[in-house]
Amino acid sequence: MTTTQRAAKVLVFGCWDRGCGYPRSDALLEAMRRRGVVVHECHFTMPYRGPEKRRLLRRPHLWPGYLLSKLRVRRGAARMLRRAIAEFRPDIVLVPYPGYFTVHWARAVWKGPLVLDLFLSAYDTAIIDRHYFPPGSLMARFMLRLDRRACAAADRVLVDTPNNVEFVAGMVPDGADSVRWVPVSDPHEPNPPAPYAPPAAGQRMEVLFFGTGVPLHGLFHLIEAMHTCERVRLTLFGGSFEDRCRARLVPPQRLRRLDEFAPEREIRRHLGSTHLVAGVFGTSPKTSRVVPFKVMLALATGRPVITADTPAIRTFLRSDEFIAVPPGDAAALSATLQGLVDQPGRLAQVAEAGHRAYQRCFSLEVVGQRLLDVFAELGVAHAPAAQQLPVAALSASSTPESLGSA
Asked: CA-CA distance, 178 to 231, in Å (whole number)?
């Protein structure tokens, strides 16, 4: 057990995605630094990063080559980790998402406290939500084993909601007691957010949707709702190919299609001028267990959000902090949107209450405290330093090739 009253030292090891579209790990690191934790990054890159992972999942014929390249990366990554441990002398090693393989590499080298941010279950994502492979198939069994072995390698496993704690604990019964939740957060949370302005009398209500269009988003239902909405316009960033084809059938005064992918600064710019943010409307089991980043970002920026009324949302938000609609019900969604056009006061109240909910449930302050609580469970105390040390990064842009020759 660490008894010295000093700042905790956390070595972050893995191949996590960075930057636009991947806020989870950035938020964890920023939250620790704000709490005075000394963070050292030991980052390396793997083939099939970011959105390329979806292509890899759908094409099993690519897997042998991927596994061979992974073996080469592993050797270099292990050397990096040993060197970082010797130089930094951490109290804890944290493996960010995706860490299904990396957590085993860390455990082979590091025998101290090890925390895995599972964040997304491979089985839940590939089998239950996106239906890449049928349940009971060889690939489904592989994904389930991947999750279970990753969780077993760590002393603590992080997910994003209490609802997902129950799901993962049921999936990995041998490690159920090790699962904890740390919410999603905005690594660039505005403080304070830009003032909110609801639609003026007679003005069209602007609604913003952004996302990839995965099943839990339920974008189909939102597009269907727009066919019958008057004085409402949806601005659509992203969506699946099928969603964007459906969107073409909606009159342009009701739906504006923008880029399939937009940088974060563009999304934030549109958030500043929108009247309402569209959350998720799907009916998949995953929808009931998560609070997606889009919902949290709306709260962080002080914008009202309309989203499916799910157990996960109700775990965090009260009735006056969001606008609830039944999952998978385009008619109810349309009626709710139409009713909001002439309720600017309600929109403003929800925006204000929603931002207070963000501060209470999702802020970097909350994330930092929950991480420190997990560290304390593992015997690592933390006394914040008067000033955070400069961020150390052993290799911020290492490639598989450079790792293999390290």
From this structure: 50
Which pLDDT tens digit goes with each residue over 288-326?
999 999 999 999 999 999 999 999 999 999 999 999 999
Please name the residues in contact with 303: beta carbons below 8 A apart, sequence gap of 6 or more: 193, 196, 271, 274, 276, 277, 351, 354
The identity of residue 211, as a single letter, is G
Q: Where are the domains of the chain?
A: 9-187+363-404, 205-361
Instruction: Give the list of residues 6+ apart from residue 17 with CB closer than 8 angstroms, or none.
Output: 25, 49, 50, 98
* Higher pLDDT pick, 71 / 28: 28
Buried b (16+ CB within 10 A) or exposed e, 143-164: bbebbbebbbbbbbbbbbbbbb
Count of C-beta atoms within a 10 Å radius of residue 395: 19
Strand partners, 307: 324
Q: Residue 262 in contact with residue 239, Cβ under 8 Å?
A: no
Mean pLDDT of the chain: 89
Per-residue pLDDT at 299: 98
CA 393 from centre of chain: 23
DSSP character for 193?
Answer: P
CATH class of 9-187+363-404: alpha beta
The answer to whether domain 9-187+363-404 and domain 205-361 are alike in fold is yes
Please tell me which residue, 286 or 400, carries the higher pLDDT value.
286
Please count the helices (runs of H) and the strands (runs of E) in the chain.
16, 13
Which pLDDT band, with edges at 50, 70 and 90, does 272 fall under?
A: very high
pLDDT tier at 53, thresholds 50, 70, 90? low
Q: Kindly state the helix (H) or strand (E) to which residue 404 belongs, with its residue range.
A: helix 400-404
* 388 pLDDT higher than 60: no
| Separation in Å, CA 144 to CA 48, 167, 268 | 21, 12, 36
Is residue 374 within 8 Å of residue 7, measured between CB atoms?
A: no
pLDDT of residue 403: 35
What kind and span of H or E run contains 41? strand 38-43
pLDDT at 19: 73
Q: Which fold has domain 205-361?
A: Rossmann fold (3.40.50)
Among candidates 317, 298, 342, which has minimal Cα distance to 194? 298
Strand partners, 380: 2
